[in-house]
Amino acid sequence: MALAAEQAADVGFDMLLYSFGSGFNLENTSPAYMAGVANSTRYARSLGLEVGGYDLIVEDRGHGGYGGNVGDQWDVVDAGTGALGTDACFASGWYDKLAGIFETFFNATGLTAIITDGPYGGSHAPCASTNHSHHAGLADSVYQQTQHQVQFFRWLLSKGTYILQPDSYFFSGA
Which CATH code of 3.20.20.70, 3.40.50.300, 3.40.50.2300, 1.10.760.10 fits the domain covering 2-172? Predict the structure, then answer.
């Protein structure tokens, strides 16, 4: 990472982002891992670079999704079949857990930017669950997922975080 930071600073870039495929894992809150990211971040910041990373937060984070299952209890539930979907529901306890992970990771590492991938749950993943903590059932699931995504981005913005996210959330803190 040091060489990448030096090269980025040499050519005039102002931000370095750990992307998918780089080995970066924002959800790894082990002290040793976060200390390594913090050291790299401090060095990059000393060169005048902002530093951030990528996280797949909702889409394909459910049952059978490729992004690593967040837990079946937080998966979208299909209204017609009752089957678990491949997306996580952002109006479930997954929202609370992810917010805690982000706060821990950002505080420990000094990251100042984030690329969120997959925050589309509100737009294409209605959820029929009746036991998720932030919606009552299918009728309010899209609205509540969208509202929680907005709240998540506003919280990140309040921390001074630069946010790269889908256009649909542009007026919510990006």
Answer: 3.20.20.70
pLDDT tens-digit series, residues 112-165: 999 988 776 555 689 999 999 999 999 999 999 989 988 998 899 899 999 887
Closest listed residue to residue 72, CA positions, set 127, 113, 120:
127
- Contact between residue 90 and residue 133 where contact means Cβ atoms under 8 Å apart: no
Where do the domains of the chain lie?
2-172
What tens digit of pLDDT does each residue of 90-114 get?
Answer: 999 999 999 999 999 999 999 999 9
Q: What is the pTM of this model?
A: 0.89
Nearest-angstrom CA–CA distance, 104 and 45: 19
d(CA 85, CA 129): 11
